[in-house]
Every structure is written in C-alpha cells, then in structure tokens.
Amino acid sequence: MIEFRKVTKSFDDDVVLRDLSFEIARGETMIILGASGSGKSTILKLLLGLIRPDSGEMYIDGREISRIGEGDLVAVRRRIGMVFQEGALFDSLSVRENVGYRLYEEGRMSEEEIEANVLRLLGFVGLEDAIDKMPAELSGGMKRRVGIARALVGHPEIILYDEPTAGLDPITKRTIVDLMIKLRDLEGVTSIFVTHDLHAAGILATEYAQARSDGNVGFRFAGDDLCVLNVRFILLNEARIGFEGSFQELQDSTDRYVRSFMARRPVAAE
Fold first, then answer.
1. pTM more than 0.85
2. Fewest CB atoms less than 10 Å from the CB: which of 50, 76, 115, 254?
C-alpha cells in the first residue's frame, strides 16, 4: 500500500532521511520510532505531499506520488486521514463543524447528510454528546478523539498518526490506542504511527480487536510469545533505518543503539 524507495530529504545541509526504503502492506501498521529530530514526522509530511523528497520514489497503492502535481495530490490526500499530536482542531469551530469541515467545504452533501456522517464518526470515538461543544470545552484526550473522527471522514484507506498519545494520562492513552486497534483490525486501515511512546506501541503490537455477537468490541492479548502479525517497527538512527522488525525482535535485539533507545523509554505501563 505504501512504499519508499531510497528516499532522501535534506533541510539546508542537514540530511534528515538518507536512502530510506520500506514497504507497508495493505491493512498493516508501521510504528516509527526514533529520537527527536530523527525524521519521523518528515516521513508523514512527504506522504502528504507537504514537502518533496530530494531523491528517491514514493508509492501509494502502486502509484508514484513524489513528482505529481498539486491537483493529483489532492486526490491522493483524499485516501489519507491525518491525526495530529494535539488534535489540531479549529478553535473557533464546534466539534460538529471540525469533524464535518471537509464535507462542508466540498459541498456535495446536504446538511442532514453531513449531520448523519458526523454523528456516526463521533459515535465511533464515543463522543456523540460533545457534538455542540467548542474545543476549549474539551479535555486533551477528547480533542485527540475528535481529531480521529475528523481523520475518518471519507473512509480513508490510510491513517497517519503523529504522536497521538503524547502527554495523555494512562486511561485516556488506552482509549486512543483502542481506537487505533479497532481501525486496524475491524476496518482494515493501513496506518503509520509516529511515536516516542513504547507502552502504547507495545499494546498495538500485542493486542487485537474482535467484534462480539452483542455488537460490542473486545480486545484480546496475543500472548507473551506472539505478536500481532500486521504490526512492524522501524527505528530511525542517523537518517537511516537502524532497525526493522516485529515488537519481539525489537525487544530481543542486541544492537547497541536499539538497546540504548529501549532503555530510555519504558515499555511497561506507567
């Protein structure tokens, strides 16, 4: 679904990504780890076409996107949902207007249709009752959940998460991660999760969602020796991929940089 081939990106004399190559299969989650300034968010900006690579190629569903025009990029972006670190809501718009913003702008739906779509998406994140609230009335976790609802407008095949659990308390963080697991396992969404949060990443890699007969969703632990198969990790180091593999392989790695990175970031719950 997503492929980078020898992608390089510099800002002035600072090489942020050098000959970066990886593939993400349809329905797979790629978790990108790395120190601050290692190029994690740059990958997301490249995929959205906000910046262009200096060299190399990027593909979405087999289509090369690194050199297409702005008009074609708009069509590509419609297939992608973006969840920002702080929710990035419009302060002057209500939750209803924030989630439905793209639908209002496109002008293809009636007010009633937009309302139904917004309520459905807010229902998915458990915030139907907040539809008329303003962002200033929401907690940090609620803002992130509204951000996820907004990212789901148009049924995107790909969702990009930029530190969505940063700064949240453990209970709220768990709510956000559960939503990410539901999207992966029940909706088949392909995703990239940029994070420093190894605890959240570990949950994504070891738990999966199942639809129950009563219409609810249950979460199951894959087991101490079994990771979720459609989750992989990349650890960036000095503008390159320093590690790529499963969560178990990440934990078992004897590489000096990997061990140092893991030691500085607890995997267990806070």
1. yes
2. 254
